[in-house]
Amino acid sequence: MTSSTAAHPEASPLASRTQQPLLALLIRLHLYVGLLVGPFIFIAALSGLVYALTPQLEERLYAEQLFANSTGTPQPLARQIEVAQAHVGEAATLSAVRPAPESGTTTRVMFTSPELGESESRAVFIDPVTAEIRGDLLVYGTSGVLPLRTWLDQFHRSLLLGEPGRLYSELAASWLWVAALGGFALWIIRRRRASATVRSKGLRHWHATLGLCLLIGLLFFSATGLTWSRWAGGNIGVARAALGMSTPSVSTALNGEKAAPPGEHDHHTGMAMPAAQTRDPQSFDAVLNAARNAGIDAGKLEIVPATEPNRAWSVTEIDRSWPTQVDAVAIDPRSLMVTDRIDFASFPIAAKLTRWGIDAHMGSLFGLANQLLLAVTALGLATLVAFGYLMWWRRRAPVRRVGVLQALRALPPRALGTTVLVTLVFGICLPVLGVSLLLFLAIEALLDGLARSRPERLRQPG
């Protein structure tokens, strides 16, 4: 008996009345998460494992497009863009240019066209020295990922099922932290109860030990995965905006206009550029030089021309490794003056953490070390799920001992109220978790009803 128990003997029965049903609740919930959500977590872990290794695979698979053997003085961007435009024809619209980041690499000229899907672009790879076309590939998203990583990314996020499939990854991310913290709590409770001389070294021991080693990584996966999920990610974005912690973006508005999303400008004041000049290849070199003079010094950057007349161009650093370089400027292509800028150093701390978290989740923040850590964690998570199923299979007969509803009813009123309140908060903030939890409780209620009716049926005369 500890000194605190001796000083307050009345605390022992209360603690016992709380801990017993709480332990039963944790065990049952951990089992439900493992059995019902485990497959989704397992698929997300294995697909994430492969995704973490894609940079090296892409360098080999797309070596012809990404690298150039020529040496010498690069030709102007205007010449490289003209070659790419002649290759794709007039039906495609120039959307962005990524100059070759270093000697021996290619310039990427990106186009949009009506037949492409949402967030898709057509990238033409140009040797900056010879202006030779090195390749023509479909790339995806603002990061312009190549086809292999695009396929893996979409499989990891949605099982290639589109928007409905994103529920799978959000379900996995929503419950992963619950499973991790629940398992940690069970480990603490069981460790306190078991003597050091009688602790089991079986499968449960290895499952718990592996989970303990991976705990921080699992919580990180869950938190960063939720930031770009559909429902929970939307709530996180609203919360950040309300707290003034949203990621800032550079404004391309000119002539004193306020920035507005594309498509919300019905008219513009002042002298407007002709639409044909908003993407003039001859302007790219001048805009790039103006951005360099303004301090945009990363090797990897993207130039985005104005999408409509009377708008500024943007030049953004896209180097996501450490130290992060994502500064951006807006430049008036007529005067070459900087009209707006954002610097990563001035980002709110929440925006910085989000940027670093996402880049670390994707394996780009610390290079190869980041990738290896992701791969080890993902493989460990898949092993955890496999261990969990093996444990359940070995002792599947007594699978139903104390149910969730029974454990909740056994809690003291204050503990029950706290549990319900915390659950409601998380269920609202993480809607997929909340809805799936209601499903779990419905299953539990059905099993309760079947268990209560079975003895009555057995007593009825045949």
From TrEMBL:
<protein>
    <submittedName>
        <fullName>Uncharacterized iron-regulated membrane protein</fullName>
    </submittedName>
</protein>
<keyword id="KW-1133">Transmembrane helix</keyword>
<dbReference type="Pfam" id="PF03929">
    <property type="entry name" value="PepSY_TM"/>
</dbReference>
<keyword id="KW-0472">Membrane</keyword>
<feature type="transmembrane region" description="Helical">
    <location>
        <begin position="29"/>
        <end position="53"/>
    </location>
</feature>
<feature type="transmembrane region" description="Helical">
    <location>
        <begin position="372"/>
        <end position="393"/>
    </location>
</feature>
<dbReference type="InterPro" id="IPR005625">
    <property type="entry name" value="PepSY-ass_TM"/>
</dbReference>
<keyword id="KW-0812">Transmembrane</keyword>
<feature type="transmembrane region" description="Helical">
    <location>
        <begin position="414"/>
        <end position="443"/>
    </location>
</feature>
<feature type="transmembrane region" description="Helical">
    <location>
        <begin position="167"/>
        <end position="189"/>
    </location>
</feature>
<feature type="transmembrane region" description="Helical">
    <location>
        <begin position="210"/>
        <end position="228"/>
    </location>
</feature>
